[in-house]
Each structure stands twice: as C-alpha cells, then as structure tokens.
Amino acid sequence: MSQPYSDQALELAVHSLPKPGDAANTALGGRLKLLAILLACSLPVLVACFVFYVVRPQGQAGFGELITPVRPVPQSQGLRLDGVPVPLHSLKAQWLLVKVDGGACVQDCQKQLTVLRQFRLMLGKDMDRLDWLWLVSDQAPVSPVLAASLVRDGATVLRVDPDTLARWLPAAAGKSQQDFMYVVDPMGNTMMRFPSLLGSAAAAKARRDMAHLLRASLAWDSPGR
C-alpha cells in the first residue's frame, strides 16, 4: 500500500547557487564589449594618427591635412544627374577622393577633376580601393559631354545640398570647398584634405600620404564594397 503523499520523501533537485563574483564578471564582460565597439568606431582616426606619427619616417611632414574630429557621412541623399536619388551612406565601404564644385565647372574645376583622375591612377594596383567623386553643390546644369566623360572614366557624379556638404566636407578657415580634394575613409568619415590643384612635387607628396593610409588599412579594408 502506498504511503500518503504527505509521508512520501520529497526529492529535490539541488542546483548550484550563483557565486558572489558572477554578477561582477558579467558587468565586466559588458564593459569590455562596449570598449571593443568604441575601439572599432575609432579605428579610422587611430589608423590615421598611427600612419602620420609612427609609420612615417622621421623628418617627413605630412602633406595632407588631417580633419579632427572626423566628419561622418550625413543621413542624406544625393541625386544623380538623371534625377535618381542615391543615399550618401551607400558610398561607404570604399575609400573616396572627393571634389566639390558648381555644375557650371569651368576651366579650374575641370583641371581639378583631371587631377583627381590622375591622382587615383598614380596609386597603381591600389586604385581599385579608392573611388573618385564630383559632388555638385548647386542647381546649375552640367555639361552632358563633361558628365559622360567622367562616368566613362569611372567617376561618380551626384548633386548634393550645400548644407549637407558643409557638414560632411569642411573647408579650412578663409578657404572654400573648391580649394580642396577630400579623403573619406571606408566608414564614411571625412578625415583628410589636400589642395585641389597639385603640381608634380605636391602630387607626389599627396600620393605618398594616400599610399600610407591604404597600406595601414590593409588588415580591415579590401577593394570594392
């Protein structure tokens, strides 16, 4: 005859209790993850500083001007010349060489676009890691012949609101955006600018700076998106 329920021995499954240090370990792990995220977000700036102050041999000053703090790509759109909208963040995951100017783009502007194209070609095997862009800052019509030539040479041409451009691509004091070509890292951060018109000696210095950046970022950047 079975014993009454109250007389039966209770079988309890005993589990280990949490140790006093477990909560502290969990909090420490959370802090380490947060630190890792912050480090990843700061990587482009750290790479730039490393290249300019460690990798570069002593006695060689950087030609490009570092932009600090970096300027992240705005959550805005540009328009292709055919009116198709393009989110600016879609330009990320590739190094960018950028020129800003009005749509009329007369003699000096066209010379600067030629400098951008040649500068990219000077990078040789690394040129596929860098795209070149002309961002049109007004509503002036663009010459169809010029636009077709740029697209044929691999350039991206977008019309972008000037206020958006000012936030993303800052000019130095007393200068305008047309005076510079800008370097944007694969995370969309504007981090360096060069003079927009380069002689042969200046172009060699700018190429050296860009080559340092590309070499230092080999571990986390590859050609294409």
DSSP strand (E) fraction?
Answer: 15-25%
In DSSP terms (H or I, runs of 4 or more residues), the helix count works out at: 6
The helix content is 25-40%
At the first level of CATH, what is the class?
A: Alpha Beta
Explain briefly what this protein structure is.
By secondary structure, the chain is of the alpha+beta class.
Description:
- The N and C termini lie far apart (77 Å).
- The chain has helices at 22-41, 43-55, 107-122, 144-152, 162-168, 200-216, and strands at residues 65-71, 77-80, 85-87, 95-101, 130-136, 156-159, 180-184, 190-195.
- It is of the alpha+beta class and 225 residues long.
- It has a single domain (36-216), classed as Glutaredoxin.
- The protein has six helices and eight strands; from the N terminus they run H-H-E-E-E-E-H-E-H-E-H-E-E-H.
- Strands 1-8-7-4-5-6-2-3 form an eight-stranded mixed beta sheet, sandwiched between helices.
List keywords for this structure.
225 residues; alpha+beta; Glutaredoxin; eight-stranded mixed beta sheet; 6 helices; 19% strand
Task: Explain the layout of strands and helices.
Blueprint: H1 22-41, H2 43-55, E1 65-71, E2 77-80, E3 85-87, E4 95-101, H3 107-122, E5 130-136, H4 144-152, E6 156-159, H5 162-168, E7 180-184, E8 190-195, H6 200-216
Parallel strand pairs: 4-5, 5-6
Antiparallel strand pairs: 1-8, 2-3, 2-6, 4-7, 7-8
